[in-house]
Amino acid sequence: MKKYKLFFVVVLSLCMVGQLAFAQSSSNMTLLSNFGRGEGESLAVFAAGSLVFYGLGSKVQIASFSNPATPVKIASIELTDVIQSLVRTSINSTQYLVVSGGSKIWLINVQDPTKPSLVSTTDVGVGVTCEGVATSGTYAYVAAGSAGFKILDIATPSAPTLVASIDSLSYCESVVISQPYAYIAANTTSNYQGRSFIFDISAPATPVYKSTIMGFGGYHQYMSVRGGYAYICDYNAGLQVVNVSVATNPTNVVTIPSGYRTASIVFDGNYGYVAVGDSGMYVYNVTNPAAPTFAGKIGTTGRAAFVSYGAVTVGGLPVGHIFVSCRATVSGVSALNVSTPATPTL
Predict the structure, then answer these.
(1) For 217-230, how does the pLDDT look when each residue is reduced to its tens digit (9 = 90+)?
(2) Is residue 297 within 8 Å of residue 284, measured between CB atoms?
(3) What is the mean pLDDT of residues 127-147?
(4) 177: which residues sit within 8 A by CB, 6+ positions away?
């Protein structure tokens, strides 16, 4: 199971303290809104401009943040398990969500986001926990917990097929694709030590192992790749930067002690936005990957679990926003204006 699940306890008084801390801990950022509050914990969010898809317990919800201060929920669809991850993709010019949770992968037609429809449910296997999912072309790549790494052909959304399965990768938490490679954040099951992997997926049916990235004693929760560097969210130790320009020989560059529960990262321009649990969201200037510099932070109303970037049109101009899914059941999704990362204004 996810490392952070072991620590999650809902205590109303702590939520109240967290809200007070939010008011006091913002640095160079402004909270615009918080949506879905009180409906369940949110572990996953995907923004497509001002259209935001997010998990809320076992529901997939769709909201319009055209006016970020007053978001509007436009649709919801109930599934059978808690949503762990989701991503939007296009198949034959039709928009779909690929969603993971429990032992299942769901495909949902969202071509009309006001009328989402469940197209297929694929059970990956008994005892499997589909923690993370990513897509590239007509394939879905699944971090399947203790069942390792799975690849599904989703060219026919109504009938996905399993084309590859690698079961010996410890506990796989998440996967990101930067062609021709899949980067899998994973950990040993005995002592929760980071042990992530790079695979060549040029031929999705026959992925080829390239290398292992060892951690510095923490738990690898998520990984994103930018400009030949992998940024690993080490749940215990912070942000770990690894040079992966040579896939067969990743080299550690620097560790940033961003704090406990460092859970995910997303980039826009030269800035990385990091979900850091109860500490909210931190911003780093990553112009120099060997020496990222702290740029700002903001407290969130719940435990920041995942971040996604979307540009929202405000006054006729695109304005950068980060959407943060929060674990606490009172929290939902927060919208943060980051148009000027170091000194954003509302």
Answers:
(1) 688 999 999 999 99
(2) no
(3) 95
(4) 134, 135, 136, 141, 183, 201
| Residue 140: burial class (beta carbons within 10 Å; 0-12, 13-18, 19+) | buried
Phi and psi at residue 23, to the nearest 5° = -65, -25
Angle at 245 between CA 168 and CA 267, to 5 degrees: 90
| Tens-place pLDDT, residues 174-206 | 999 999 999 999 988 666 677 899 999 999 999
317-326 vs 304-314, strand pairing mode: antiparallel
Other CB atoms within a 10 A radius of the CB of residue 85 amount to 26
Cα–Cα dist 160/231, whole Å: 31
Amino acid at position 203, single letter = A
pLDDT digits (tens, 9 = 90+) for 31-79: 444 555 556 689 999 999 999 999 999 999 999 999 888 899 999 999 9
Q: Does residue 325 sit in helix, strand or coil?
A: strand
Collapsing DSSP states into helix, strand and coil, what is residue 6?
helix
Run of H or E residues at 24: helix 12-25
